Structure formats: structure tokens, C-alpha cells
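Priority: medium. Attachment 1 of 2:
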């Protein structure tokens, strides 16, 4: 275990990406089992893998070295709308939804999701 901890301490960006993926996957597991009340037979492992991928690629953002007030401002004004749109695009592409339908979903939902997130 110590070599793993040492590696993660030497590579904080990798650690943040890994943690973001694990948290996104864990959130999807909680959502499927706890909120949607699925049993193990109905559990969608591919969906969890998609959320982990999205967590690694999108949610491990590079705003680590900025002071907290600037980070919150940038996160809410710049990063949240951008990553929400990316989430819809990546998730749609991974579900093999046609791009024109993804585009309509983004135009319809991104503003609402960002507003609710505030």
C-alpha cells in the first residue's frame, strides 16, 4: 500500500484524475442502487464505466492552484457550463446517440442544469 500512496503523492494530477473517476463511478452506483432501486441483475455496469470515464476526463479540472474565491467564481461562471455541455456530449456519444439529437439536448438542458447547480 505504501508504494501506491507514494506514487499518488508524487503524481497529484494523476491522483486527482483517478479520484474524480472513482467518485463519479461511486455516485452512479449509489444512484442506480439507492435512488433508482435497481437490483444487481438490472445494474448497468457500462453506465458506471461511462460516468467513471467522464469523471476522469472532465471533472478532474485544473483549477487546483488558484485561491478559493477565484476558483469558485471560475468554476461557476466558466467551468460548470463548459463541463455540463461536455457531459451531455460525451455521455450521448458513448450511448451512440446521433450528434444532432445531442446538440438539441444540450441546447434544451445545459442552461437549466447549470442554473440548478448554483
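Attachment 2 of 2:
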Amino acid at each position: 500500500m505504501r508504494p501506491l500512496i507514494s506514487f499518488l503523492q508524487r503524481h497529484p494530477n494523476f491522483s486527482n484524475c483517478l479520484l474524480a473517476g472513482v467518485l463519479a463511478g461511486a455516485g452512479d452506483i449509489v444512484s442506480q442502487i439507492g435512488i433508482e432501486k435497481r437490483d444487481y441483475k438490472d445494474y448497468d455496469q457500462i453506465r458506471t464505466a461511462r460516468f467513471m470515464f467522464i469523471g476522469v476526463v472532465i471533472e478532474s479540472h485544473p483549477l487546483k492552484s488558484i485561491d478559493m474565491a477565484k476558483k469558485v467564481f471560475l468554476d461557476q461562471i466558466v467551468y460548470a457550463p463548459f463541463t455540463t455541455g461536455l457531459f451531455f456530449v460525451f455521455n450521448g456519444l458513448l450511448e451512440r446517440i446521433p450528434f444532432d439529437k445531442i446538440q438539441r439536448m444540450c441546447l434544451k438542458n445545459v442552461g437549466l442544469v447549470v442554473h440548478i447547480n448554483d
